[in-house]
UniProtKB/TrEMBL annotation:
Stretches assigned to the SIS domain: 141-281
PROSITE patterns referenced in this protein's UniProt entry, alphabetically: HTH_RPIR, SIS
Protein name per UniProt: MurR/RpiR family transcriptional regulator
Assigned keywords, A-Z: DNA-binding, Transcription, Transcription regulation
Native source species: Pseudonocardia zijingensis
Residue ranges annotated for the HTH rpiR-type domain, each copy included: 16-92
Pfam family, any one: HTH_6
């Protein structure tokens, strides 16, 4: 999902993005509303058939609370909620995905099922991330990146590793960018930014205090700020001018941050490729220079058949 920070567009019934949106906003919901959301995510199939009274009872709340929950998601009422859940389930069934917490790896699973589950979970996350992106917001971010004097990238842990790849690609097309994972170094860099610069912060949870602090400093310095996170109500979402949300669920043996990498790369790849498109003329020269610089460090490609054909008989099979 991609929105300008501070705006949370209402969902529309039948868009097939209700459960992804719910996972994104769930941590920011009040206690009783969060209870309703948790029950839905635990068993979406049951929730799609349940009455408003049954959902209230299972969540330990009331029909009035369920109604408030619907409105907090931008829905007109309970009927629209059920339609949205059923649409998500149908979409997942058609794609061969499992909905809810069932798509997981168990200790006794054979390797082929582990592979299928891994592929299904990651593909679903990428499809839901792509479906939730507001391309108007993405275009705004791309325009800022193209015009930027410099770009700061903030993240810690797994996020920093993902951002290092983005930095390398931007440098290859001649765009000045730096990745900061140490909060002291990042804060010093953020303090040097100003209008016309861009700061991108990556945090799956949106609650990494170092990343939040670095982005806050960049905003105070006048830079355009962008956050990429899985949770649209997280602290980092409150700071950023532009918000790009992934849609990822944690599975066993992989933390949420690890599960998020493919969807994070998808968002960053989109930004990079669009920037490369729009800077094609000026990017061609640095791209070529970079390729020429690393070319001598790559061994020539040779097939075994070609090596054998060029190797004397005495060295290949021994003296005869």
């Amino acid at each position: 999902m991609a929105v300008t920070a501070g705006s949370d567009p209402p969902l529309e019934a039948g868009t097939g993005q209700l459960l992804a949106h719910l996972r994104s906003v769930l941590p920011g919901l009040a206690g009783a509303l969060r209870q309703v959301g948790n029950v839905i995510l635990e068993d979406p199939a049951w929730a799609s058939r349940a009455t408003i009274v049954e959902l209230g009872e299972r969540s330990g709340t009331s029909p009035a609370t369920v109604t408030r929950f619907c409105r907090s998601l931008g829905l007109s009422g309970y009927t629209e909620l059920r339609v949205g859940i059923a649409t998500d389930i149908g979409r997942a069934d058609q794609a061969g995905w499992e909905v809810g917490i069932g798509a997981d790896v168990l200790p006794t699973d054979p390797l082929d099922r582990v592979l299928r589950t891994l592929l299904a979970v990651d593909l679903q996350a990428m499809h839901e991330t792509a479906a939730g992106l507001d391309l108007r917001v993405v275009e705004t971010v791309i325009g800022a990146l193209v015009a930027a004097r410099r770009i700061d990238l903030y993240g810690v842990g797994h996020s920093a590793t993902v951002l290092e790849d983005m930095q390398m690609r931007l440098h290859r097309i001649g765009i000045a960018s730096w990745t900061w994972s140490d909060v002291h170094a990042g804060l010093m860099s953020a303090a040097q930014l100003g209008p016309g610069d861009v700061a991108i912060a990556l945090s799956h949870s949106g609650r990494s205090t170092e990343t939040v602090d670095m982005l806050a400093q960049a905003k105070a310095s006048g830079a355009t700020t962008v956050a990429i996170t899985n949770f649209s109500t997280s602290p980092i979402a409150e700071i950023a001018e532009h918000l790009l949300c992934t849609s990822v669920r944690e599975t066993s043996y992989r933390s949420a941050e690890m599960s998020a990498r493919h969807s994070q790369f998808l968002v960053l790849d989109l930004l990079y490729l669009a920037v490369a498109q729009r800077t094609h003329e000026r990017a061609t020269e640095p791209w070529t220079r970079a390729a020429e610089a690393v070319a001598p460090h790559r061994a020539p490609y040779e097939t075994r058949a070609r090596r054998d054909a060029e190797t004397p008989e005495t060295t290949r099979g021994g003296a005869r």
